[in-house]
Design a protein that fits this description.
By secondary structure, this protein is mainly α. 44% of the residues lie in helices and 3% in strands. The chain binds heme C (HEC) (3 copies).
Length: 426
Amino acid sequence: MKRPSSVGFAGKWPAIFFAASGLLFLLQIAANQALADSGGEQVQRGEYLARVGNCMGCHTARGGEPYAGGRKLNTPFGEFVTSNITPDNETGIGHWNEEDFWQAFHYGKSKDGRYLYPAFPYTEYTKVTRQDADAIFAYLRSLPPVVQTNPPHRIHSPYDNQLLLFLWRTRYFKEGVYQPDNSKSDEWNRGNYLVQGLGHCTACHTSRNVWGASQDDKLTGGKIMGTYWYAPSLISPLEAGVGEWPIKDIIELLSTGINGHAVTSGPMATIVRQSLQYLSDDDIRSMAVYLQSLGEKQSSDKAPRKARKMSDRVRQYLALGEQVYEKNCQDCHGESGQGVPGIYPPLAGNRSVTMTSPLNTIRSVLYGGYPPATAGNPRPYGMPPYQHFIRDTEIAQVVSYIRNAWGNLGSLVNPEDVDKSRGNEF
Ligand code: HEC
Ligand code: HEC
Ligand code: HEC
Protein backbone atom coordinates (compact mmCIF):
# COMPACT_ATOMS: atom_id res chain seq x y z
CA MET A 1 0.00 0.00 0.00
CA LYS A 2 1.25 3.31 -0.90
CA ARG A 3 1.37 5.79 1.92
CA PRO A 4 2.29 8.85 0.04
CA SER A 5 1.12 11.11 2.72
CA SER A 6 3.31 9.62 5.42
CA VAL A 7 6.27 9.36 3.07
CA GLY A 8 5.55 12.88 2.15
CA PHE A 9 5.36 13.78 5.80
CA ALA A 10 8.58 11.90 6.63
CA GLY A 11 10.13 13.58 3.65
CA LYS A 12 9.20 16.93 5.15
CA TRP A 13 10.91 16.22 8.46
CA PRO A 14 14.21 17.75 7.54
CA ALA A 15 12.44 20.87 6.36
CA ILE A 16 10.40 21.07 9.52
CA PHE A 17 13.52 20.42 11.55
CA PHE A 18 15.40 23.19 9.83
CA ALA A 19 12.49 25.55 10.02
CA ALA A 20 12.09 24.84 13.74
CA SER A 21 15.78 25.15 14.54
CA GLY A 22 15.91 28.27 12.40
CA LEU A 23 13.07 29.67 14.41
CA LEU A 24 14.79 28.67 17.65
CA PHE A 25 17.94 30.30 16.41
CA LEU A 26 16.07 33.51 15.63
CA LEU A 27 14.37 33.37 19.00
CA GLN A 28 17.77 32.94 20.60
CA ILE A 29 19.13 35.98 18.81
CA ALA A 30 16.08 37.98 19.83
CA ALA A 31 16.49 36.85 23.43
CA ASN A 32 20.17 37.73 23.46
CA GLN A 33 19.36 41.04 21.91
CA ALA A 34 16.75 41.75 24.55
CA LEU A 35 19.22 40.80 27.26
CA ALA A 36 21.87 43.01 25.74
CA ASP A 37 19.35 45.83 25.42
CA SER A 38 18.30 45.59 29.02
CA GLY A 39 21.96 45.27 30.07
CA GLY A 40 22.87 48.21 27.86
CA GLU A 41 19.96 50.19 29.18
CA GLN A 42 20.92 49.45 32.76
CA VAL A 43 24.51 50.52 32.10
CA GLN A 44 23.28 53.72 30.51
CA ARG A 45 21.00 54.46 33.41
CA GLY A 46 23.88 53.71 35.76
CA GLU A 47 26.09 56.17 33.92
CA TYR A 48 23.46 58.85 34.32
CA LEU A 49 22.97 58.06 38.01
CA ALA A 50 26.73 58.13 38.60
CA ARG A 51 26.66 61.67 37.21
CA VAL A 52 23.89 62.63 39.59
CA GLY A 53 25.97 61.24 42.48
CA ASN A 54 29.16 62.83 41.11
CA CYS A 55 31.15 59.66 41.77
CA MET A 56 33.74 60.66 39.20
CA GLY A 57 34.30 64.04 40.86
CA CYS A 58 35.61 62.42 44.03
CA HIS A 59 36.99 59.19 42.58
CA THR A 60 39.36 60.85 40.13
CA ALA A 61 42.68 62.43 41.05
CA ARG A 62 43.58 65.70 39.39
CA GLY A 63 44.73 64.72 35.89
CA GLY A 64 44.23 61.04 36.78
CA GLU A 65 42.26 58.19 35.20
CA PRO A 66 38.50 58.55 35.71
CA TYR A 67 37.17 56.44 38.61
CA ALA A 68 40.64 55.13 39.53
CA GLY A 69 40.55 57.16 42.76
CA GLY A 70 43.56 58.71 44.45
CA ARG A 71 41.98 62.07 45.08
CA LYS A 72 42.82 63.44 48.52
CA LEU A 73 40.14 64.96 50.71
CA ASN A 74 41.26 67.10 53.62
CA THR A 75 39.21 67.06 56.78
CA PRO A 76 39.88 67.90 60.42
CA PHE A 77 40.26 64.13 60.96
CA GLY A 78 43.05 63.76 58.45
CA GLU A 79 43.44 63.13 54.78
CA PHE A 80 41.19 60.61 53.07
CA VAL A 81 42.11 59.11 49.73
CA THR A 82 39.35 57.94 47.39
CA SER A 83 39.31 54.33 46.23
CA ASN A 84 39.83 52.85 42.79
CA ILE A 85 36.31 51.83 41.74
CA THR A 86 37.16 50.59 38.26
CA PRO A 87 36.74 46.80 37.76
CA ASP A 88 40.41 45.92 38.14
CA ASN A 89 40.71 42.66 40.09
CA GLU A 90 43.69 43.60 42.22
CA THR A 91 43.48 47.34 42.81
CA GLY A 92 39.82 48.09 42.08
CA ILE A 93 36.46 46.41 42.64
CA GLY A 94 36.84 43.72 39.96
CA HIS A 95 36.06 40.92 42.43
CA TRP A 96 32.94 42.58 43.76
CA ASN A 97 29.40 41.43 43.03
CA GLU A 98 26.16 43.38 43.28
CA GLU A 99 25.72 42.41 46.90
CA ASP A 100 29.23 43.61 47.86
CA PHE A 101 28.52 46.90 46.18
CA TRP A 102 25.20 47.24 47.98
CA GLN A 103 26.95 46.61 51.31
CA ALA A 104 29.35 49.47 50.60
CA PHE A 105 26.89 51.88 49.04
CA HIS A 106 23.97 51.30 51.38
CA TYR A 107 25.64 50.22 54.64
CA GLY A 108 29.12 51.75 54.32
CA LYS A 109 30.88 48.42 54.70
CA SER A 110 33.66 47.35 52.36
CA LYS A 111 33.97 43.87 50.85
CA ASP A 112 36.58 42.94 53.45
CA GLY A 113 34.16 43.89 56.25
CA ARG A 114 35.91 47.15 57.09
CA TYR A 115 33.64 50.07 58.00
CA LEU A 116 34.06 52.88 55.52
CA TYR A 117 34.69 56.46 56.56
CA PRO A 118 31.81 58.83 56.02
CA ALA A 119 34.08 60.99 53.84
CA PHE A 120 32.37 58.66 51.34
CA PRO A 121 28.84 60.06 51.54
CA TYR A 122 27.12 56.71 52.08
CA THR A 123 25.30 58.48 54.89
CA GLU A 124 23.32 60.08 52.03
CA TYR A 125 23.60 57.34 49.39
CA THR A 126 21.88 54.94 51.80
CA LYS A 127 18.62 56.57 50.60
CA VAL A 128 19.23 55.29 47.04
CA THR A 129 17.09 52.34 45.89
CA ARG A 130 18.56 48.90 45.23
CA GLN A 131 17.59 49.19 41.58
CA ASP A 132 19.51 52.44 41.15
CA ALA A 133 22.50 51.09 43.09
CA ASP A 134 22.58 47.98 40.85
CA ALA A 135 22.52 50.19 37.76
CA ILE A 136 25.46 52.24 39.06
CA PHE A 137 27.34 49.01 39.75
CA ALA A 138 26.58 47.72 36.23
CA TYR A 139 28.00 50.94 34.85
CA LEU A 140 31.16 50.72 36.97
CA ARG A 141 31.61 47.12 35.73
CA SER A 142 31.47 48.37 32.13
CA LEU A 143 34.42 50.74 32.62
CA PRO A 144 37.90 49.78 31.47
CA PRO A 145 39.78 48.37 34.49
CA VAL A 146 42.61 50.64 35.63
CA VAL A 147 45.52 49.18 37.56
CA GLN A 148 46.20 51.80 40.19
CA THR A 149 47.09 51.37 43.84
CA ASN A 150 46.30 54.48 45.81
CA PRO A 151 48.16 55.69 48.89
CA PRO A 152 46.57 54.89 52.26
CA HIS A 153 44.49 57.41 54.21
CA ARG A 154 46.45 59.58 56.59
CA ILE A 155 44.10 59.89 59.51
CA HIS A 156 45.02 61.53 62.79
CA SER A 157 45.02 59.43 65.91
CA PRO A 158 42.63 58.52 67.54
CA TYR A 159 40.23 58.64 64.59
CA ASP A 160 41.96 55.83 62.70
CA ASN A 161 40.03 53.28 64.68
CA GLN A 162 37.29 50.87 63.56
CA LEU A 163 35.74 50.70 67.02
CA LEU A 164 35.36 54.46 67.10
CA LEU A 165 33.87 54.36 63.62
CA PHE A 166 31.48 51.65 64.76
CA LEU A 167 30.37 53.83 67.67
CA TRP A 168 30.03 56.79 65.35
CA ARG A 169 27.78 54.77 63.07
CA THR A 170 25.62 53.62 65.93
CA ARG A 171 25.11 57.20 66.96
CA TYR A 172 24.96 59.10 63.68
CA PHE A 173 24.25 56.80 60.76
CA LYS A 174 20.70 55.89 59.84
CA GLU A 175 20.60 53.27 57.11
CA GLY A 176 17.49 53.20 54.91
CA VAL A 177 16.15 53.72 51.40
CA TYR A 178 14.08 56.86 50.82
CA GLN A 179 10.42 56.40 51.67
CA PRO A 180 8.10 58.50 49.51
CA ASP A 181 5.66 60.83 51.25
CA ASN A 182 2.29 59.95 49.74
CA SER A 183 0.77 63.29 50.63
CA LYS A 184 3.20 64.96 48.19
CA SER A 185 3.44 64.90 44.39
CA ASP A 186 5.64 62.44 42.51
CA GLU A 187 7.75 65.37 41.37
CA TRP A 188 8.34 66.54 44.94
CA ASN A 189 9.24 63.02 46.04
CA ARG A 190 11.66 62.60 43.15
CA GLY A 191 13.27 65.94 44.07
CA ASN A 192 13.57 64.95 47.72
CA TYR A 193 15.06 61.57 46.73
CA LEU A 194 17.67 63.29 44.56
CA VAL A 195 18.55 66.12 46.96
CA GLN A 196 18.79 64.01 50.11
CA GLY A 197 20.13 60.86 48.43
CA LEU A 198 22.25 60.58 45.32
CA GLY A 199 22.73 64.36 44.91
CA HIS A 200 24.10 64.42 48.49
CA CYS A 201 23.39 68.14 48.82
CA THR A 202 23.11 67.48 52.55
CA ALA A 203 26.78 66.45 52.68
CA CYS A 204 27.76 70.11 52.30
CA HIS A 205 24.67 72.16 53.14
CA THR A 206 24.36 71.13 56.79
CA SER A 207 26.41 72.05 59.82
CA ARG A 208 28.53 69.29 61.32
CA ASN A 209 29.37 68.64 64.93
CA VAL A 210 32.89 68.00 66.24
CA TRP A 211 32.52 64.36 65.23
CA GLY A 212 31.91 65.38 61.65
CA ALA A 213 28.29 64.24 61.76
CA SER A 214 25.56 66.26 60.06
CA GLN A 215 23.52 67.90 62.75
CA ASP A 216 20.32 67.08 60.90
CA ASP A 217 19.19 66.67 57.32
CA LYS A 218 17.51 70.03 57.20
CA LEU A 219 19.94 71.78 54.83
CA THR A 220 20.29 74.74 57.17
CA GLY A 221 23.81 75.55 56.02
CA GLY A 222 27.27 75.24 57.50
CA LYS A 223 30.96 75.57 56.90
CA ILE A 224 32.21 72.65 54.80
CA MET A 225 34.55 70.49 56.83
CA GLY A 226 38.20 70.90 55.94
CA THR A 227 37.56 73.66 53.41
CA TYR A 228 37.26 77.39 53.59
CA TRP A 229 33.78 77.60 52.17
CA TYR A 230 30.42 78.15 53.74
CA ALA A 231 27.55 76.21 52.13
CA PRO A 232 24.55 78.46 52.72
CA SER A 233 21.19 77.40 54.14
CA LEU A 234 18.83 76.12 51.45
CA ILE A 235 15.92 77.12 53.69
CA SER A 236 16.59 80.65 54.88
CA PRO A 237 15.53 83.46 52.55
CA LEU A 238 18.54 85.40 53.86
CA GLU A 239 20.96 82.80 52.49
CA ALA A 240 20.20 80.44 49.59
CA GLY A 241 16.59 79.44 50.29
CA VAL A 242 14.66 79.61 47.03
CA GLY A 243 11.12 79.62 48.45
CA GLU A 244 10.36 82.85 46.66
CA TRP A 245 12.04 82.13 43.34
CA PRO A 246 10.02 81.01 40.31
CA ILE A 247 10.83 77.40 39.32
CA LYS A 248 12.45 78.51 36.10
CA ASP A 249 15.03 80.64 37.95
CA ILE A 250 15.95 77.73 40.21
CA ILE A 251 16.33 75.44 37.20
CA GLU A 252 18.48 78.04 35.46
CA LEU A 253 20.87 78.35 38.41
CA LEU A 254 21.20 74.61 38.95
CA SER A 255 21.68 73.68 35.31
CA THR A 256 23.71 76.63 33.99
CA GLY A 257 25.43 77.86 37.17
CA ILE A 258 24.16 81.41 36.82
CA ASN A 259 20.92 83.38 36.73
CA GLY A 260 19.83 86.99 37.09
CA HIS A 261 20.28 87.06 40.89
CA ALA A 262 23.01 84.58 41.69
CA VAL A 263 26.06 82.75 40.50
CA THR A 264 27.60 79.52 41.75
CA SER A 265 31.23 79.61 42.85
CA GLY A 266 33.88 77.36 44.35
CA PRO A 267 32.67 73.87 45.31
CA MET A 268 29.13 74.64 44.12
CA ALA A 269 30.42 75.61 40.68
CA THR A 270 32.21 72.24 40.64
CA ILE A 271 28.98 70.40 41.47
CA VAL A 272 27.14 72.19 38.65
CA ARG A 273 29.97 71.55 36.19
CA GLN A 274 30.52 67.89 37.05
CA SER A 275 27.00 66.83 37.90
CA LEU A 276 23.92 69.05 37.85
CA GLN A 277 24.27 70.32 34.27
CA TYR A 278 23.83 66.73 33.04
CA LEU A 279 20.55 66.09 34.84
CA SER A 280 17.48 65.46 32.69
CA ASP A 281 14.92 68.26 32.43
CA ASP A 282 12.51 66.23 34.55
CA ASP A 283 15.03 65.58 37.32
CA ILE A 284 16.27 69.15 37.53
CA ARG A 285 12.66 70.36 37.65
CA SER A 286 11.87 67.89 40.44
CA MET A 287 14.85 69.16 42.41
CA ALA A 288 13.68 72.73 41.89
CA VAL A 289 10.15 71.86 43.04
CA TYR A 290 11.50 70.26 46.20
CA LEU A 291 13.96 73.08 46.93
CA GLN A 292 11.23 75.67 46.43
CA SER A 293 9.05 73.83 48.96
CA LEU A 294 11.92 73.83 51.48
CA GLY A 295 12.67 77.52 51.22
CA GLU A 296 10.82 79.66 53.70
CA LYS A 297 8.99 82.70 52.49
CA GLN A 298 10.42 85.94 53.76
CA SER A 299 8.51 86.75 56.92
CA SER A 300 8.69 90.06 58.72
CA ASP A 301 10.99 88.84 61.48
CA LYS A 302 13.29 87.36 58.86
CA ALA A 303 13.31 90.56 56.84
CA PRO A 304 16.61 92.42 56.77
CA ARG A 305 17.03 94.54 59.85
CA LYS A 306 16.59 98.28 59.72
CA ALA A 307 19.70 100.19 58.72
CA ARG A 308 21.88 100.79 61.74
CA LYS A 309 23.07 104.18 62.82
CA MET A 310 26.63 104.54 61.68
CA SER A 311 29.37 106.15 63.69
CA ASP A 312 31.80 108.46 61.93
CA ARG A 313 34.47 105.80 62.16
CA VAL A 314 32.30 103.27 60.35
CA ARG A 315 31.37 105.84 57.75
CA GLN A 316 35.05 106.57 57.11
CA TYR A 317 35.87 102.88 56.89
CA LEU A 318 33.15 102.32 54.31
CA ALA A 319 34.24 105.41 52.36
CA LEU A 320 37.70 103.86 52.02
CA GLY A 321 36.03 100.67 50.81
CA GLU A 322 34.09 102.67 48.25
CA GLN A 323 37.35 104.01 46.82
CA VAL A 324 38.74 100.50 46.49
CA TYR A 325 35.49 99.50 44.79
CA GLU A 326 35.52 102.35 42.28
CA LYS A 327 39.09 101.63 41.34
CA ASN A 328 38.95 97.84 41.11
CA CYS A 329 35.44 96.47 40.87
CA GLN A 330 33.07 98.97 39.36
CA ASP A 331 33.97 98.25 35.73
CA CYS A 332 32.37 94.86 36.01
CA HIS A 333 29.91 95.02 38.89
CA GLY A 334 28.59 98.48 38.06
CA GLU A 335 28.36 101.85 39.77
CA SER A 336 25.43 100.77 41.89
CA GLY A 337 26.38 97.10 42.18
CA GLN A 338 23.85 96.13 39.54
CA GLY A 339 26.19 93.80 37.58
CA VAL A 340 25.50 92.72 34.00
CA PRO A 341 22.81 90.03 33.72
CA GLY A 342 24.24 86.61 32.86
CA ILE A 343 27.81 87.97 32.81
CA TYR A 344 28.78 89.77 36.03
CA PRO A 345 26.70 89.00 39.10
CA PRO A 346 24.93 91.88 40.81
CA LEU A 347 26.31 92.68 44.26
CA ALA A 348 23.36 94.85 45.28
CA GLY A 349 20.68 92.66 46.83
CA ASN A 350 22.91 89.58 46.44
CA ARG A 351 22.41 87.24 49.40
CA SER A 352 25.82 85.62 48.92
CA VAL A 353 27.30 89.03 49.69
CA THR A 354 25.10 89.97 52.65
CA MET A 355 24.68 86.65 54.46
CA THR A 356 26.01 86.41 58.00
CA SER A 357 29.16 84.52 57.06
CA PRO A 358 31.43 86.77 54.95
CA LEU A 359 33.69 83.81 54.13
CA ASN A 360 32.66 83.15 50.51
CA THR A 361 32.65 86.84 49.64
CA ILE A 362 36.14 87.33 51.04
CA ARG A 363 37.31 84.27 49.11
CA SER A 364 35.79 85.56 45.87
CA VAL A 365 37.87 88.70 46.24
CA LEU A 366 41.07 86.90 47.34
CA TYR A 367 41.03 84.19 44.71
CA GLY A 368 38.61 85.37 42.01
CA GLY A 369 37.02 82.56 40.11
CA TYR A 370 34.82 81.38 37.32
CA PRO A 371 31.24 80.25 37.25
CA PRO A 372 31.08 76.71 35.80
CA ALA A 373 31.29 76.23 32.04
CA THR A 374 27.99 74.60 31.08
CA ALA A 375 25.97 74.05 27.92
CA GLY A 376 23.80 76.99 29.01
CA ASN A 377 26.80 79.23 29.74
CA PRO A 378 29.67 77.79 27.71
CA ARG A 379 32.16 80.63 28.05
CA PRO A 380 31.71 82.11 31.50
CA TYR A 381 33.31 85.44 32.35
CA GLY A 382 35.70 85.29 35.28
CA MET A 383 36.74 87.46 38.16
CA PRO A 384 40.43 88.23 38.74
CA PRO A 385 42.09 87.27 42.05
CA TYR A 386 42.97 90.29 44.16
CA GLN A 387 45.21 88.77 46.83
CA HIS A 388 48.39 90.03 45.16
CA PHE A 389 47.03 93.38 44.03
CA ILE A 390 45.47 94.86 47.11
CA ARG A 391 46.31 94.49 50.79
CA ASP A 392 44.17 92.65 53.32
CA THR A 393 43.13 96.01 54.80
CA GLU A 394 41.74 97.08 51.45
CA ILE A 395 40.03 93.75 50.90
CA ALA A 396 38.41 94.13 54.33
CA GLN A 397 37.30 97.64 53.44
CA VAL A 398 35.85 96.77 50.07
CA VAL A 399 34.06 93.69 51.38
CA SER A 400 32.61 95.78 54.22
CA TYR A 401 31.56 98.34 51.65
CA ILE A 402 29.75 95.95 49.30
CA ARG A 403 28.02 94.36 52.31
CA ASN A 404 26.61 97.77 53.20
CA ALA A 405 26.18 99.72 49.96
CA TRP A 406 23.07 100.07 47.81
CA GLY A 407 20.67 98.93 50.52
CA ASN A 408 22.75 95.87 51.48
CA LEU A 409 23.18 95.23 55.17
CA GLY A 410 25.87 93.02 56.62
CA SER A 411 28.45 93.02 59.37
CA LEU A 412 31.79 94.73 58.86
CA VAL A 413 34.88 92.72 58.07
CA ASN A 414 38.39 93.35 59.38
CA PRO A 415 41.82 92.34 58.00
CA GLU A 416 42.03 89.37 60.42
CA ASP A 417 38.82 87.95 58.91
CA VAL A 418 40.49 88.19 55.52
CA ASP A 419 43.60 86.39 56.70
CA LYS A 420 41.54 83.66 58.37
CA SER A 421 39.76 82.99 55.08
CA ARG A 422 42.91 81.93 53.26
CA GLY A 423 43.36 78.28 52.43
CA ASN A 424 43.95 76.34 49.30
CA GLU A 425 41.09 73.89 49.20
CA PHE A 426 39.27 74.54 45.88
C1 HEC B 1 32.72 63.37 48.51
C2 HEC B 1 33.56 62.40 47.86
C3 HEC B 1 32.97 61.10 47.36
C4 HEC B 1 31.91 60.94 46.50
C5 HEC B 1 31.03 62.03 45.87
C6 HEC B 1 31.82 59.53 46.24
N1 HEC B 1 32.76 58.84 46.95
FE1 HEC B 1 33.03 56.82 46.96
N2 HEC B 1 34.43 57.04 48.41
C7 HEC B 1 34.94 58.22 48.88
C8 HEC B 1 36.00 57.95 49.86
C9 HEC B 1 36.81 58.98 50.61
C10 HEC B 1 36.08 56.55 49.97
C11 HEC B 1 37.02 55.76 50.87
C12 HEC B 1 36.35 55.43 52.19
C13 HEC B 1 37.15 54.51 53.04
O1 HEC B 1 38.13 53.94 52.56
O2 HEC B 1 36.80 54.33 54.22
C14 HEC B 1 35.08 56.00 49.05
C15 HEC B 1 34.83 54.66 48.89
C16 HEC B 1 33.94 54.12 47.98
C17 HEC B 1 33.69 52.71 47.81
C18 HEC B 1 34.32 51.59 48.63
C19 HEC B 1 35.57 51.08 47.98
C20 HEC B 1 36.25 50.02 48.77
O3 HEC B 1 37.28 49.52 48.28
O4 HEC B 1 35.80 49.69 49.86
C21 HEC B 1 32.80 52.57 46.79
C22 HEC B 1 32.23 51.28 46.22
C23 HEC B 1 32.46 53.90 46.34
N3 HEC B 1 33.18 54.82 47.08
C24 HEC B 1 31.59 54.18 45.32
C25 HEC B 1 31.12 55.46 45.02
C26 HEC B 1 30.06 55.73 44.08
C27 HEC B 1 29.36 54.68 43.23
C28 HEC B 1 29.86 57.07 44.11
C29 HEC B 1 28.83 57.89 43.36
C30 HEC B 1 27.45 57.52 43.49
C31 HEC B 1 30.80 57.63 45.06
N4 HEC B 1 31.56 56.63 45.58
C32 HEC B 1 30.90 58.97 45.37
C33 HEC B 1 34.54 59.49 48.51
C34 HEC B 1 33.48 59.77 47.65
C1 HEC C 1 30.76 69.99 47.75
C2 HEC C 1 29.85 70.73 48.55
C3 HEC C 1 28.48 71.06 47.98
C4 HEC C 1 27.54 70.18 47.50
C5 HEC C 1 27.64 68.66 47.38
C6 HEC C 1 26.41 70.98 47.14
N1 HEC C 1 26.64 72.30 47.39
FE1 HEC C 1 25.37 73.86 47.00
N2 HEC C 1 26.78 75.18 47.61
C7 HEC C 1 28.01 74.86 48.14
C8 HEC C 1 28.73 76.08 48.46
C9 HEC C 1 30.13 76.18 49.05
C10 HEC C 1 27.90 77.16 48.12
C11 HEC C 1 28.23 78.65 48.26
C12 HEC C 1 28.91 79.19 47.02
C13 HEC C 1 27.91 79.65 46.00
O1 HEC C 1 27.13 80.55 46.29
O2 HEC C 1 27.90 79.11 44.89
C14 HEC C 1 26.68 76.57 47.58
C15 HEC C 1 25.59 77.29 47.10
C16 HEC C 1 24.39 76.74 46.70
C17 HEC C 1 23.25 77.51 46.29
C18 HEC C 1 23.16 79.02 46.25
C19 HEC C 1 23.82 79.60 45.06
C20 HEC C 1 23.77 81.12 45.13
O3 HEC C 1 24.82 81.74 44.93
O4 HEC C 1 22.70 81.65 45.41
C21 HEC C 1 22.25 76.61 45.96
C22 HEC C 1 20.84 76.93 45.50
C23 HEC C 1 22.80 75.30 46.16
N3 HEC C 1 24.10 75.41 46.61
C24 HEC C 1 22.10 74.11 45.96
C25 HEC C 1 22.67 72.84 46.04
C26 HEC C 1 21.98 71.62 45.68
C27 HEC C 1 20.55 71.52 45.21
C28 HEC C 1 22.86 70.59 45.87
C29 HEC C 1 22.67 69.11 45.61
C30 HEC C 1 22.32 68.76 44.26
C31 HEC C 1 24.11 71.19 46.33
N4 HEC C 1 23.94 72.54 46.44
C32 HEC C 1 25.24 70.45 46.62
C33 HEC C 1 28.52 73.58 48.33
C34 HEC C 1 27.90 72.40 47.91
C1 HEC D 1 36.61 91.47 35.25
C2 HEC D 1 35.34 91.64 35.88
C3 HEC D 1 35.31 91.64 37.41
C4 HEC D 1 35.97 92.48 38.28
C5 HEC D 1 36.95 93.59 37.94
C6 HEC D 1 35.52 92.12 39.60
N1 HEC D 1 34.63 91.10 39.52
FE1 HEC D 1 33.67 90.25 41.08
N2 HEC D 1 32.91 88.83 39.83
C7 HEC D 1 33.08 88.77 38.48
C8 HEC D 1 32.55 87.50 38.00
C9 HEC D 1 32.56 87.01 36.56
C10 HEC D 1 32.07 86.81 39.13
C11 HEC D 1 31.50 85.38 39.19
C12 HEC D 1 32.67 84.51 39.65
C13 HEC D 1 32.36 83.13 40.14
O1 HEC D 1 31.27 82.63 39.94
O2 HEC D 1 33.28 82.52 40.75
C14 HEC D 1 32.28 87.68 40.26
C15 HEC D 1 31.91 87.37 41.54
C16 HEC D 1 32.03 88.22 42.62
C17 HEC D 1 31.50 87.96 43.93
C18 HEC D 1 30.68 86.70 44.33
C19 HEC D 1 29.23 86.97 44.05
C20 HEC D 1 28.34 85.77 44.29
O3 HEC D 1 27.14 85.87 43.98
O4 HEC D 1 28.81 84.74 44.77
C21 HEC D 1 31.84 89.01 44.73
C22 HEC D 1 31.51 89.18 46.18
C23 HEC D 1 32.60 89.92 43.90
N3 HEC D 1 32.69 89.42 42.63
C24 HEC D 1 33.14 91.10 44.35
C25 HEC D 1 34.06 91.85 43.64
C26 HEC D 1 34.88 92.90 44.20
C27 HEC D 1 34.79 93.39 45.63
C28 HEC D 1 35.69 93.33 43.20
C29 HEC D 1 36.77 94.36 43.29
C30 HEC D 1 37.77 94.18 44.32
C31 HEC D 1 35.37 92.57 42.00
N4 HEC D 1 34.39 91.68 42.31
C32 HEC D 1 35.95 92.76 40.77
C33 HEC D 1 33.68 89.74 37.71
C34 HEC D 1 34.49 90.76 38.20
